[in-house]
Amino acid sequence: MPDILAIALNPAVDVSCEAESVRPTLKIRTRNQRHDPGGGGVNVARVVVELGGSAEVVYLSGGATGALLDDCLERTSVRLHRVRIEQPTRVAYIVHENQTSFEYRFVPEGPQIVPADLCNVFAHIERFEGTYVVASGSLPKGAPSESYAKMAEIAGRQNKRFILDASGPALREALSTKAVFLVKPSIGELQGLVGRTLDEDGARNAALEIVEAGRARYVAVSMGMEGAFLASENGVIRLPARHVRLRSAVGAGDSFVGAVVFSLAAGNDVEQAFRLGIAAGAAAVMTTGTQLCRLQDVEALFTPN
Ligand SMILES: Nc1ncnc2c1ncn2[C@@H]1O[C@H](COP(=O)(O)OP(=O)(O)OP(=O)(O)O)[C@@H](O)[C@H]1O
Ligand SMILES: [Mg+2]
Does residue 269 belong to any structural domain of this protein? Predict the structure, then answer.
């Protein structure tokens, strides 16, 4: 049985391709089309598996595009628990323009879900016997803003560790349960949470205040190519980003979170997990398009101290 359960309430099929140039009106011929499973929770689970761990994902899928997502996921080694929904799964479209190397990303909002869909997910979290429950990504239409808060409470009641990568009201409400083990806001998401712009000192203080108030035990604030810091009752650990050649920043956050939860589940302490997250975030930007981090890059970039 996997020790990690990832939650994917609004997963996607990521369709990616290349075009010489993207122009209005003209027919744009594309090549090298790929279909990958995507969306926060799905990506986190795939990263865990890439790093050699095992993870289960509970995900919502519906319609013909849901069947395509199921098919994409069945090609991975992630253990699957599908919750069928009425409306079709979203399809994101990503076009790499060869002339400029720009990436155009079209990301639909996704299906409307109903309360019973969420109840199925809650019930699955209740049944899960592992230690780590990790929720990542935006809420679908129809999911109330307390959705992640409810999951945090279920996990907390059962002494499971709830890890969250979310934003806006869903993030705020989850933190107010005081049942979050680790939260990973980007600095922009942290600013949204406190309602003001923050320089790095301000961000440190805001993260430490979250810890002191008991709203999360660990707060990992990611700052893209500036790296990240980890706040806990022991203070702040600051790490710069690893220097790598940037191909596509897509998936850095998910790779960071996947690596952190993988490392924790492997029995490492939070600082080591944080260091693996830094390596995985950098490894993700080395890969093109929607590809996540690769094990060999993560190993090469990891520094244990
Ligand atoms: N250009 C980069 N070079 C090296 N490392 C990077 C780069 N971008 C991100 N990372 C690493 O990945 C971590 C997570 O990235 P980031 O802060 O961009 O997450 P995010 O804003 O949640 O991203 P996402 O858009 O995937 O949600 C960073 O803290 C950093 O360590
Ligand atoms: Mg993010």
Answer: yes
The answer to whether residue 250 sits within a structural domain is: yes
Q: 259 lies in a domain?
A: yes
Structural domain containing residue 127: 4-9+41-65+114-301
- Give the confidence band of 144 by pLDDT, cuts at 50, 70, 90: very high
Instruction: Quote the tokens at residue 201.
Output: 């000192």
How many angstroms from the chain centroid is the CA of residue 296? Answer: 21
Residue nearest atom 18 of ligand 1, based on CA coordinates:
224
Q: Which ligand is nearest to the CA of 223?
A: 1
Cβ of 256 below 6 Å from ligand 1: yes
Atom of ligand 1 nearest to the CA of 184: 22
Q: In whole angstroms, what is the distance from residue 163 CA to residue 256 CA?
A: 12
Residues near 69 by Cβ (< 8 Å), separated by ≥ 6?
A: 11, 12, 13, 37, 59, 61, 89
pLDDT tens for 58-73 read: 999 999 999 999 999 9
Give me the CATH number covering residue 275. Answer: 3.40.1190.20
State if residue 230 touches ligand 1 by the CB under 6 angstroms criterion: no
Tokens of 39: 């969306």
Is residue 238 included in any domain, yes or no?
Answer: yes
Catalytic annotation on 254?
yes
Q: List, for residues 88-123, the tens digit of each pLDDT value.
A: 999 999 999 999 989 999 999 999 999 999 999 999
**Are 219 and 207 in contact, with CB atoms under 8 Å apart?**
yes
Contact 271, 262 (CB under 8 A): no
How many domains does the structure of the chain reveal? 1
Residues 231-245 as b/e (b if ≥16 CB within 10 A, e otherwise) read: bbeeebeebebbebe
